[in-house]
Amino acid sequence: MRFHKSFSGIADQFGAIAPSLLILILLGATVSSADDQPAAKTKEVKARDMTLVVPEGWKSKPQVREPRVAEFEIPATEEGKEKGEFVVFYFGKQGAGGVQANIERWVGQFEAEGRMVKTLTGESAEGKYTLVDLTGTYKKPIGPPIMRQSKSMPGWRVLNVVVETKAGPYFLKIDGPEKLIAAIEADFRNSFGGKKETEKEQKAE
């Protein structure tokens, strides 16, 4: 075949170039990566002593009441799907119980069947942090805490973080459908300066 002969001749001229790469060059193909995509525009938001950096598309909810010091609504990834929520809590210098006690409480907010848990520790400019990544059926609290009411949310994912700042611990929580959280996980870490590549996983005892 003519194409086979001419291709072989060109391949001989390029020598060291791998055939698969040569085909891409001949076809005028381009290789792109996620790094080539423009980064989402962000905004700085004060949450008491913390400065958060979040995507402009995350809508701040006004008139939050302590211990909530910031709250955002996260757009759904698909029309008609559930939105996500990002809340920042501050309970004062002493916090609200130890880190381990909070981890146990967060894990307890998920049905045991099908629950997946990963605990990570890392360092941010704000201080050390512990991140608990939970997936499964979430018993999402609804209404006043004193009522202890919840709504079952299957296929849900929650990222809970406690950041140990100089002003005391800040508790950050983001929740939503698994697909949504996977799409904005990097944005969530960026909001408080977390670095996934340097985090260490804590194995359950």
Q: What labels describe this entry?
A:
single chain; 205 residues; alpha+beta; Protein Transport Mog1p, Chain A; eight-stranded antiparallel beta sheet; disordered N terminus
Report on the structure:
With 205 residues, this protein is of the alpha+beta class. It folds into two domains: 1-31; 34-202, 3-Layer(aba) Sandwich (Protein Transport Mog1p, Chain A), CATH 3.40.1000. Helix content is 22%, strand content 40%. It contains four helices and ten strands; from the N terminus they run H-H-E-E-E-E-E-H-E-E-E-E-H-E. The chain has helices at 2-14, 19-26, 99-108, 178-192; strands at 42-47, 50-55, 59-60, 68-74, 84-90, 116-124, 127-142, 149-165, 168-177, 200-202. The strands form two sheets. Strands 3-4-5-9-8-7-6-10 form an eight-stranded antiparallel sheet, sandwiched between helices. The radius of gyration is 23 Å and the shape is globular. The termini are far apart. Residues 1-11 and 20-38 have low confidence and may be disordered.
Give the CA-based shape: globular
Helix/strand/pairing category = alpha+beta
CATH architecture of the largest domain: 3-Layer(aba) Sandwich
Radius of gyration over all CA atoms, rounded: 23 Å
Task: Give the domain tally.
Answer: 2
Count every helix, treating DSSP H or I runs of 4 or more residues as helices: 4
Looking at CATH, which topology of the largest domain would you report?
Answer: Protein Transport Mog1p, Chain A
- Helix amount: 10-25%
Give the H and E element order: HHEEEEEHEEEEHE
**How much β-strand is present in the residues?**
35-45%
Mean pLDDT: 83
Distance between the termini: 66 Å
